[in-house]
Amino acid sequence: MRLSVRGPVEYAPTYAAMQSFTASRSEGTEDEIWLCEHPAVFTQGLAGKAEHVRTPGGIPVVATNRGGQVTFHGPGQVVAYPLVDLKRQGFFVKEYVYRVEEAVIRTLAEFGVTGHRVAGAPGIYVRLDDPYSHARLPLPQPSPNGGGSKPGFEGLGKIAALGIKISRHCTYHGVALNVAMDLEPFSRIDPCGYPGLKTVDLSTIGVSTNWNDAAAVLGDKLAALLPS
């Protein structure tokens, strides 16, 4: 696994580079993890709906081929792109997603923060009242109309968003961890398609760190959980 710290880079050329890397790789191509920081941009996934981008203002909106719906990237956020051959690794997609989320959980733990999964809503969340709590989240409640359980976000803030694409058994796109950023643009969208979903970063929950340190930890955790 090769770690590449790319730092501040434009989103669109990075997206194109991921596609090119994946299309041209062979069975022997080494897996890579790109660690990036993008200027302000909204990205829309394949499931994205236009109404979830409410007031973009001057921030560009880029349509992508990843899963999921709309999210925001901006300075102070670590965006990790694992470029992994799942067939060679022997991972199914669900296990891959679990491992990426686990890398974020372990990264947060390095800063004393407890990350949580929410059933049916990929990404990682923290308790707003006590980000250091290890108490289990309440189980999702059934929908009153019998349509199954809905994700339970009460008391939670989303600190990391996940969206991936699989092509020829290989992954691209990835996970974005909010470190110390301007969170205002998240109020212009329905993050990941959920109106009113609170978004937080490490800074707002009391953790003082910088992009480089957070990127180094996340990169190490991803490399450990996605060994080549």
What would you say about this model in short?
The protein is of the alpha+beta class. 22% of the residues lie in helices and 27% in strands.
How would you sum up the global shape?
Answer: globular
Terminal residue distance: 5 Å
CATH superfamily: Bira Bifunctional Protein, Domain 2
Query: In order across it, which strands form the biggest sheet?
Result: 1-2-6-10-9-8-7
Helix and strand composition category: alpha+beta
In the CATH hierarchy, the third-tier topology is known as: BirA Bifunctional Protein, domain 2
**Rg measurement, Å:** 17 Å
Order of SSEs:
EHEEEEEHHEEEEH
Low-pLDDT windows of residues: none
Query: Helical proportion?
Result: 10-25%
The CATH class turns out to be Alpha Beta
Biggest β-sheet strands, sense, barrel: 7 strands, mixed
Corresponding CATH architecture = 2-Layer Sandwich
The percent range for strand residues is 25-35%
Count of folded domains: 1
The tally of strands reads 10
DSSP summary: helix tally:
4
